[in-house]
Specification:
The complex is a heterodimer of chains A (about 240) and B (about 230). Chain A is of the alpha+beta class. Chain A is built from six helices and five strands; from the N terminus they run H-H-H-H-H-E-H-E-E-E-E. By secondary structure, chain B is an all-alpha fold. Chain B has one domain: Rna Polymerase Sigma Factor, Chain: A, CATH 1.10.1740.10. Classes of the chains: A alpha+beta (about 240), B mainly alpha (about 230).
Chain lengths: ~240, ~230
């Protein structure tokens, strides 16, 4: 609220002395009192004020119901941070154990070095990792293969391999061939019967159920075909270097 | 000074309603404002000079009070605080309009006074002749009032029209009591020659204390200056 500045009108600061004779001043005061407004607020103004008030109340309700970050007690937060650290350490150990077993021993240099690095960290992690089985772990590295769908979850390898007509097929399926990763995906033998010989991997094609068929290597190449379930036609194909 | 009757509806005092509003009660402010709305309207109307600008000033004040309720510290009565917010909103509007159209202000004021005359209350509706005479007198007063500086006008509206004490008016206007006295005194001096043609006022019109029977029909709680401690 702006404060009224008395200095703005020096006349206001004049000594308090009567300017009018008392009788005349009383007459003026009486006239002013007569002119006092005594009617209630007009209905249209009431309606307007009520509408503004309703808007203010709604605005206030909306503000008060906006989600606010929950208050987390500091000790609880610290315990959670410690637990997260232990889980992260365990994950490193699991990856270190699982990757060398899942991936082909002749795999890429990256995977080997990653496995080595993970193994080297194992002593630090200790046995609290829970001894995660390599067989139960998923090669999350595969999910991050360039070209693979970003929607795919690294550990959800029970789910079909997501493929899209908007993405190049070759990099998306290369990991299946290069690293033997096909075993990590569901085999969907019941889908697209008659797709011929080859290892089948459950997939989706533009969101529709599909199957990826890894043909037997021929010479130094391996053909990969994609079928949409219920159709015998190949919707996408590519050829990769034989593993 | 007349007593302020206990509100006929609701058990909560003004201070309780304001506190409830701050605490999130969705209906408290509406109840509080409705309780004093007519009196605030009267002050806004006489300060602004016409109903259009008075509605704007009253709305500005209501919005400001709604949003700044948390800043109320209880140093004054809630009604005093409400009046202060509304009067300041009105004066801010007058100053802003003055800045925007300083050259047109005199004509504008006349126009405003004329517009105000359209809604001036008539207490003598039962007697058309007396009512017309009263309306004419009232219009002369309002025209004269409109010629005053806003601060002088606000002081006279509070003290001589609405019956607030000088101390209460000083609290509402956020200035010293001597300033209110000075503004009132000088304002009356300026009005005197303008009101002289009206002759002496009726004996029943006691300066600064309008008759109790003139309460606004819509509420019985808001027709007298606020008392502390409500």
């Amino acid at each position: 609220m702006p404060a009224h500045d008395d200095r703005a009108d020096p006349a206001d600061q004049a000594p308090d002395r009567p300017v009018l004779p008392p009788a005349e001043e009383a007459a003026v005061r009486a006239r002013l009192a007569e002119a006092r407004h005594t009617d209630p607020v007009p209905a249209d103004v009431v309606a307007r004020l009520d509408a503004v008030l309703a808007d203010l109340a709604a605005e206030r309700r909306q503000t008060s119901t906006e989600p606010v970050a929950p208050v987390v007690p500091l000790p609880s937060r610290r315990r959670r941070a410690l637990a997260s650290g232990l889980v992260a350490a365990a994950a490193v150990v699991v990856l270190g154990v699982a990757l060398p077993q899942v991936l082909d021993s002749g795999g890429s240099d990256e995977s080997t070095s990653a496995g080595d690095a993970a193994v080297q960290t194992r002593p630090d992690a200790g046995s609290d990792a829970g001894g995660g089985s390599a067989d139960e772990s998923a090669p999350s590295e595969l999910a991050q293969e360039p070209g693979a769908s970003s929607e795919r979850s690294g550990s959800a390898f029970a789910a079909p391999l997501e493929l899209s007509s908007d993405e190049p097929l070759r990099p998306a399926v290369r990991a299946l061939v290069d690293r033997g990763g096909a075993a990590a995906y569901d085999a969907e033998s019941g889908c697209a019967p008659g797709t011929g010989e080859g290892e089948r991997v459950a997939a989706t094609w533009d969101g529709r159920p599909a199957v990826v068929v890894l043909r037997p290597p021929a010479a130094d190449r391996q053909v990969v075909d994609v079928y949409v379930c219920g159709s015998g036609e190949v919707v996408a194909t590519t050829a990769l270097p034989a593993p | 000074m007349r007593d302020v009757p206990t509100p006929s509806y609701g058990e909560r005092s003004d201070a309780e309603l304001l506190a409830a509003h701050v605490d999130g009660d969705a209906d408290a402010f509406g109840e509080l404002f409705t309780r004093h709305r007519d009196r605030l309207w009267a002050v806004a109307l006489r300060t602004m000079g016409n109903p259009t600008d008075a509605a704007d000033g009253l709305q500005d004040g209501m919005v400001a009070a709604f949003r700044r309720a948390g800043s109320f510290r209880g140093e004054a009565a809630v009604t005093t605080w409400l009046h202060r917010v509304v009067v300041n909103a009105c004066l801010d509007r007058i100053r802003a309009a003055k800045v925007r159209a300083a050259d047109a202000l005199p004509d504008d004021l006349e126009e405003r006074a004329a517009r105000g005359a359209l809604v001036a209350s008539t207490d003598d509706d039962h007697d058309p002749e007396a009512g017309a005479l009263a309306a004419e007198r009232r219009q002369v007063v309002l025209d004269a009032l409109a010629t005053l500086a806003p601060d002088q006008r606000a002081a006279l509206v509070l003290v001589d029209m609405e019956g607030y004490s000088v101390a209460e008016a000083a609290e509402i206007l956020d200035c010293a009591e001597g300033t209110v006295k000075s503004r009132c005194s000088r304002g009356r001096a300026r009005l005197a020659p303008l009101l002289a043609p009206l002759g002496p006022a009726a004996p029943a019109s006691a300066p600064g204390n309008p008759p109790a029977a003139a309460d606004v029909p819509s509420t019985s709680a808001a027709r007298a200056p606020p008392r502390r401690g409500r």
